[in-house]
Amino acid sequence: MMRPGSARFRLVVAIAVTAIGLAACSTGGDDEAVPTRSPATTTATTSASGSSTASSTPRSSTTRSSSAPTGSVPGDCTAGNCPALPVPTSSLMQGQITAGNAQQKVPAYLSSVLDDLDGTWGPWFEELGWGNPDPGRVLVASGETFRSSCTDTDDRDTVVESDTPNAFFCPVDVAADGSGQRVEGSVILPVETFVGIWTGTFLVQGPLDQIGGFQGEFTAATVVAHEYGHAVVDRIAQAGGLGPRSEPRGENAELIADCLAGNWAATVLKRHQLSIADITQAVALLQKIADPAPGQGHGTATQRIGAISLGFFGPSLGQGQPVNCFTKYWPEVFG
After folding, report:
1. What gap in Å lies between CA 26 and CA 161, rounded to an integer?
2. Rounded CA gap, 164 and 118, in Å?
3. Do 73 and 242 form a contact (C-beta atoms < 8 A)?
4. In 9, 176, 196, 211, which residue has its Cα 20 to 30 A from 242's Cα atom?
5. Is the separation of the CB atoms in 290 and 298 below 8 Å?
6. How far apart are the C-alpha atoms of 267 and 42, rounded to whole Å?
């Protein structure tokens, strides 16, 4: 695996990581979901072996429960005193998924990425006394449909099919986390969309896109990490008993997720699990994503490059830390 050996390499990595982070929430839809009343939520889940199940969970109120302990926020996470994000020892699947086996291996890979994210963020939350950050997992398998308890910005039900070109986090959807515990607040991943990253159908709109090469495990992983970033913010808000007005506002709500995805991506680099191919594939996405102008909800390419680079490198080209993201994009609480 390639290791960073120069400032130029670091810059290429920063741009590449930005590109993949921008894919989530910017690929044909808006994931800024809003809790709403819904009589039932159909939870389509895919296990690591690829089997699917479905169940209904009644919901009768817009009031969300809070299973996380109420702690001190920001507490011990201030600009001058905050734990570093740990670097796990686990290895992500590298080079084992191809266009030929993607249908079989992608669900297990997505689960392994979520496991890795749990293993990264869990100890950090525990050190701060903020409870368990692990979100529920909804992997929408081929032929399945998931109806979320969140609505989109047009107040329509969010219905996710297996090939919906987006990924989501909904703070009120209930699903099993990695340990099988049903929790409120879930990451929703349409499996066929992620299969498209390997089969060359992801974001393909013309012949040149097929040459661009959006394939790559790290591309998929960082999309997941972005959605997990939303879960991190949600869990912190619960731990501190914060109301909606105290959460990141405007474009910062998306930029902080980019930044937190960069935090996790930095741990992947420190484990020497990024290659030149990962970087090249990620850079190919840059032209396809981000808002064309400020004020449209997700941030321009410049804003999102800044966000995920801050998460990846911090302010001084080291390893970025969560506190860098919080003080920049969540000043209501951490500023």
Report:
1. 17
2. 25
3. yes
4. 176
5. yes
6. 34
- Look up residue 242 and give its two tokens: 């914060």
Residues 299 and 309 sit within 8 Å (Cβ to Cβ): no
Tokens in use for 77?
């996470």
- Residue 37 near residue 148 (C-beta atoms within 8 A): no
Least confident range from 72-81, 249-258, 283-292: namely 283-292
Query: Whole-prediction pTM value?
Result: 0.81
